[in-house]
Design a protein that fits this description.
By secondary structure, the chain is mainly alpha-helical. The chain has helices at about 5-35, 45-55, 55-90, 95-115, 115-135, 140-165, 170-175, 180-195, 195-210, 215-220, 225-240, 240-275. The chain has 12 helices and no strands.
Length: about 280
C-alpha cells in the first residue's frame, strides 16, 4: 500500500489548516463569550446558562424546536426512504430519456440546490393561497413541519439511494425466486440493508431542522417561535449577549453530539458485521 509523500502531506496540511480555522474559530468564539461577564456577574462565570434554564421563552422555543425536529425528521425519513428506494429500484438500466432517466433525479435535487430564501418565500405564498381559499394551513408549527419535510426528504433520499446503488440488483431477483412478494422483499431485504442510511438520514434531518432559520422564518406563525428565530429576534432587540452566546453554544454542542452519535453507531455496526479473518 503506497503512502503519500511527506511534502504532499505538508502541503495538504497547509491548505486545510486555514479552512479549519475559518470554519471553527467563530464557533469557539461563541463558546468563549458565553462565559463572559454579564449583568450582576462581573467576572467569568456560567450564569448565562442558568439564566437560559429559567427563561420561559427559551424553554418554549426549545420545546417547539425539538417537537418540530423529531416529527418532521420521522416523516421526512419515511418519505425519503421511499423516494430513494424508488430511484434505485426502478431506475432505467441504460439511458431512459428525460422522463425516466433525468426528471426523477431532478425533482430530488431541486429542493437541495434551490436557495433557502426562494424556497421559503414559495412555501409562504403556497400556504397563504391555501389558507385564503380553504381556511386550512394557517401559519404555525404545522406549516413549518410541512416545509421542513419537503427539504429533509431529498437529503434522506440521496443517503438511501447511495446505499442502495452499491447493491447487486440480483439480490432483489433472488428474493423473488424465494417467493418473497415486493412488500416482504422491502421489509426483510431493503430495510435491514439500508438501516445505517436510515439512522444517518434521520439524524441529518434532525440537524437540518434544528439549524434551519430562513424557511422557518417565512412559514412560522406568531406562536411558533423556534430557537433560531428566537436567537435572531433577541439579537435584533438587544444585540449579542452572554445568554445568546450560551444558547448558540448549546445548539452547537447538540449538533456535534448528534454527529458523534451517528459516528459511533456506524462504527459499532461495521465492527459487528465484519467477518473475522481465518488464520
Amino acid at each position: 500500500m503506497s503512502t503519500i509523500p511527506r511534502k504532499i502531506q505538508h502541503a495538504l496540511f497547509g491548505i486545510s489548516l486555514p479552512v479549519y480555522l475559518l470554519l471553527y474559530t467563530p464557533l469557539a468564539v461563541i463558546a468563549i463569550f458565553s462565559f463572559g461577564p454579564s449583568l450582576g456577574h462581573p467576572t467569568v462565570n456560567v450564569a448565562a446558562y442558568g439564566l437560559l434554564l429559567q427563561d420561559p421563552e427559551v424553554m418554549a422555543a426549545l420545546r417547539r424546536s425539538l417537537t418540530l425536529a423529531l416529527c418532521s425528521a420521522a416523516l421526512g425519513t419515511l418519505l425519503g426512504t421511499l423516494m430513494g428506494f424508488g430511484l434505485s429500484r426502478f431506475r432505467p438500466a441504460t439511458g431512459g430519456g428525460f422522463w425516466l432517466g433525468t426528471l426523477p433525479s431532478l425533482i430530488i435535487y431541486l429542493p437541495i440546490i434551490m436557495p433557502s430564501l426562494v424556497f421559503g418565500i414559495s412555501e409562504l405564498i403556497f400556504f397563504n393561497f391555501v389558507h385564503e381559499y380553504t381556511g386550512l394551513l394557517s401559519a404555525g408549527l404545522l406549516t413549518m413541519g410541512i416545509a421542513h419535510v419537503t427539504f429533509q426528504s431529498p437529503y434522506v433520499a440521496l443517503v438511501v439511494y447511495a446505499r442502495l446503488a452499491g447493491l447487486d440488483p440480483n439480490l432483489f431477483e433472488a428474493s423473488q425466486d424465494l417467493y418473497a412478494n415486493p412488500i416482504k422483499s422491502f421489509l426483510f431485504l431493503t430495510i435491514p440493508v439500508v438501516r445505517p442510511a436510515l439512522i444517518g438520514g434521520f439524524l441529518l434531518a434532525i440537524t437540518l431542522s434544528i439549524d434551519d432559520f430562513t424557511i422557518s422564518f417565512f412559514t412560522a406563525g406568531p406562536g411558533s417561535v423556534t430557537l433560531p428565530i428566537y436567537i435572531y429576534s433577541a439579537i435584533a432587540r438587544k444585540g449579542a449577549s452572554p445568554e445568546i452566546n450560551a444558547l448558540g453554544s448549546l445548539m452547537i454542542a447538540s449538533v456535534i453530539g448528534i454527529a458523534l452519535l451517528y459516528y459511533f453507531i456506524t462504527r459499532h455496526r461495521e465492527r459487528s458485521t465484519r467477518i473475522p479473518a481465518v488464520a
